[in-house]
Write a structure and sequence with these properties.
The chain has helices at about 5-25, 30-40, 45-50, 60-70, 75-85, 90-100, 125-140, 145-155, 160-165, 170-185. It has about 180 residues and is mainly α. The protein has a single domain, classed as Clp, N-terminal domain (Double Clp-N motif). GO terms for molecular function: peptidase activity.
Length: about 180
């Protein structure tokens, strides 16, 4: 599938690997794809994201992703559902971090600096890449671009889609911004 990726999409994947490495993650997750996508500057997806989520709002996106990572990747909807059952996720996170240190539920590997070889993609990141392909095919595009990755990230559900929606980036708004970026001179 990667042979169908544009240079921009390949750069996003490479950036996602770098984010995973820097954070000590055991796998490349969809949040790493989003962070790498936010780093892009000269693509249609970058133009759409600049319109929908300007650079001054990006620290809030990163903070929301960090907060979800502290909750072991639970979305707000997941936490609210558990709260309805009488389970206080915030209290559990606080107790685990008290016993095991800050970020204990963040999914970091022990010995993060000693990694040989490539990190695998998480199941969710694979889903984003597969949806990117499906979106490209549905649009009759010959290659998978970072714009397809952006659209796929908005449809996966879970933390990343929730964070994007909280910052005004939905499938509909991203599609409109991408269309506008395509016709802009």
């Amino acid at each position: 599938m990667f042979e169908r990726f544009t240079q921009a999409a390949r750069a996003v994947v490479k950036g996602a690997f770098e984010y995973a490495e820097r954070t000590g993650a055991a796998a490349v997750a969809e949040e790493h794809l989003l962070l790498a996508l936010l780093d892009r500057e000269d693509t249609r997806a970058a133009a759409a994201l600049r319109e929908l989520c300007p650079p001054e709002r990006r620290p809030a996106v990163a903070a929301a992703l960090d907060d979800a990572r502290r909750r072991a990747g639970l979305s707000r909807a997941d936490a609210e559902a558990l709260e309805g059952l009488g389970i206080d996720v915030g209290a559990i996170v606080a107790r685990v971090e008290e016993a095991h240190g800050p970020g204990a539920l963040a999914g970091k590997r022990k010995g993060a600096g000693r990694w040989s070889g490539r990190r695998p993609f998480s199941r969710e990141a694979k889903t984003v890449l597969e949806k990117s392909l499906r979106i490209a095919l549905a649009r009759k595009d010959r290659e998978i671009g970072d714009e397809h990755m952006l659209l796929a990230l908005t449809t996966t559900g879970g933390v990343v889609a929730e964070v994007l929606a909280d910052h005004g980036v939905t499938y509909t708004s991203a599609e409109a911004a991408l269309s506008a970026a395509a016709v802009a001179p």
